[in-house]
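Supplementary Data S3. Sequence and structure tokens for construct A.
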Amino acid sequence: MAIVALVVLVTIALRIRDVSHHFWLMGDQVRDWAIALRPFTSLPLVGPPTHVHGYSIGPAFYWIIWVIRVLTGPFFHNLPHGGGIGQAALQSGADALLLVGLWRRTRSVWPALVVVTLLATAPFDLALAAVVWNPVVGSILAKMAIALVLLDWHRGSLVRTAVVAAVAWCAVQSYTGAIFVAGGVFVALLVDAARTGEWAAVWRRGLVVAGTVAVLQVPWVIYQWTTGFGDTGMSAVTDSLAAVFTGQQGPRFLASATALVDAFIWMHALPGSEAFWALVLLTAVVTVAIRYRADAELLAVTLLPLAAAVTGFAFWVQDVEPYFLLPLAPAVVITVLLAVAAVVPTRFTNPAGALFLAGALAIAPARAANAATQLRMPYYSALATGAKEIAALGQPIQSIDPAFELPPGCNAEFLYLVLGGRLDPRAPWRAIIRRDGRVDYIRAAGGGR
């Protein structure tokens, strides 16, 4: 418990460091945090829109950030960086589950600590940790589902099976790219009973999984019913599949596998060539498949999602961005670390584990420094400070403009509105927020008295 508590505290501190100064307040965050501020009954029945003109096929993401807003928002004036802190805490909770699950599965604390350290300090993951964004939440839930399988928690009852299935499917609702992990989790829920020939148990668990997914899709069905089933939200996927199966384009297995390797290199800021890391991953997959061939559940949540992702994205005709594969990060890191551990002689297991952990901790500061160069908005603190000053006046303002350039998608007035401020085109003053957060008030042209 002491080790788990330490991991949670350290990873939270790492993830939320200075978030109130550099929170990434872009268009997606403005939209989604504004939705989270609504009453629960006003939340959408589907998830956020995607850049490929679809949307996530369920409201789990909005449910989760709404709960985070209720729990953490009041401590931070309901400003969006409070949501980032709550999301980071949820991520660290998932790390704790994964730590215990791997510890139990491998019967050694060292691989578990190394995996969690490498995941928590991966520059791309760390940069996103406190950014309220649905791919991050989908990845957190996918990690939780993997951890619960490694803990064998689902074996306790059918209710537990339903809970694990719900976590996995909520990951898909939050971010469609988590489907490959969810598929592996579903297989893991059934495979132990299938391996022993308990087919009645397989059927029962299969029905529970299917029923859980069906219940979670009720909001989507209601949404489709009210909109006349005009858009399922999966048009980009169906268009890609149609293009391949009609012969317009061929499946791209090599490009898909390359995208997985490139994403792994990008997320972890790894040195070396693409060919080198492709060989490392392939060797690790083969090693784990041989060493853990008797542990079908472990293979189902590590190797199966990787194979499914390579196959699935082979039928995706658009570019594969690195963040598409964010939910697969735990499976990749676990696979590589288990492969390394598998070739270490038993008598050297503990010294080697301690050495690997020392190495992971040694590179952590450099990885954190790398993360600090990504997805940061240094003027967030100025916007928040200025918004608080303007809102404290208790008077409407005509407009708020920054005295510095904001990235496209950022809304300089959003924080003021969150704090209860009012914009009125007839107000006599407009505000200019400086770089240090101080505010200048300028008589507005056409404003009232």
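Construct B, processed identically:
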Amino acid sequence: MRHTKIIATVGPASHHPDIIAALIAAGADVFRLNFSHGSHEVHGATITAIRSVAAAAGRHVAILQDLSGPKIRTGGIRDGGTLQLFIGEPLDIRIGSELGEHGMVSTTYAPLATAVRRGDILLLDDGKIALEVQDASPAVISTRIVDGGLLGENKGINAPNVPLPPVGVTPKDEDDLRFGLAAGVDLVALSFVQTADDIARARSIAAAAGHTVPIVAKLERPEAITRLDEISQAADALMVARGDLGLELPLEQVPQVQKLVLRSGRDHGIPVIIATQVLESMRTESRPTRAEVSDAAGAVDSGADAIMLSGETAVGAYPVRAVEILDAIIRDAERVPPVWMLPAPRSERPDHLPSLCDAAVTLAARSEADAIIAITRKGRTARLLSARRPHAPIYALTGSENGARQLSLWWGVRPLVEDLSTDINEIVVRTVQKLRSAGLLPTPATVVVVNGSPDLEQSAANFVRLRRV
């Protein structure tokens, strides 16, 4: 069983149900919907297609809604939608929605004009184009082109070392989030998180809509790294968004930041997703570069819970093959266990359940168990087990489809929906039969069963058992 999860972004190259089915067969555990692009109608149809195809495949596949956040972008462009920018020429960035033309583009993000100073560098289109600020007023930023190229419409603007005001959840994000929750998304990624308050705001919007959903904090600006501990305490998962980080920080610092985030995730017992340009060359090529393969394998060795494909599956020429290759890379990397031992997260709630999970993982290791069966009504037992990185696969028995899909992100966890109202022994027998029928458990097998409950007076709860089945 592969422990590290694969997230595949759905886009024009992969939204057809047949491609979604092929991506699931190739190994996708979570589908990301990028709300920076596409209408609610398009995303709603994609959600329906994913649910239908996953049900037919008998898989609990999660849907991750990725909110666009306060991304600074250029506007539209007249006459064909592109501008050729040459080194040394002037370029004005006007505040508003005016269509761009020779010597001018626009942006609707007004705070940029009051934040920049002469000499600041602005990066457009993921750093492909660089501008040096010459002057600025509330209405226009005058720049000189340092690195030119072909600029399309609605491209991102990064302003490294420019102190931009925190925005948090934008009105568009609020509207998108309410739509996503009503449509049944399982996880929500919050873009450009800078403080724990951003996460609290998203939770309050979800609560007002009558939903509880895990929040993934996307780390894309230096401000988030300076507040990494507080963000890790507030979030349910972290994402190292290396694309924007690599533009906002010096490139040589990005690997160190990735290590810091992975360490913070381990300390707080929450998943960490590695994202951006994992197999970037597969947008156009059928094989990744050796460096990309090493990067993905290195993420596994460093303890990443999930690896995300973006353009590779959204707009790439080989979306299914990209997932197949990433699956093969991860499986091979996991054949050699890391030399480090994972400590228990330091910020866990101080109750009896972490100790139960410690005992279950230790017992599974000493007995060379074939599986850990976790009875986890709300998912916490499975998440605690995942944070301890057991060698044995974790089969998490939960009572709801929604709970099962949410657990699809967690390292080493394979969720199963079961009726948990019956006798524990009956539940275990049914589970063993299902696993054997699926070829996931040998005969005979050694399994560790763990069941936790906050109610210490329940005689049938709070136990760890070692069984030969």
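The longest strand covers residues 129-136. The two ends are 19 Å apart (CA to CA).
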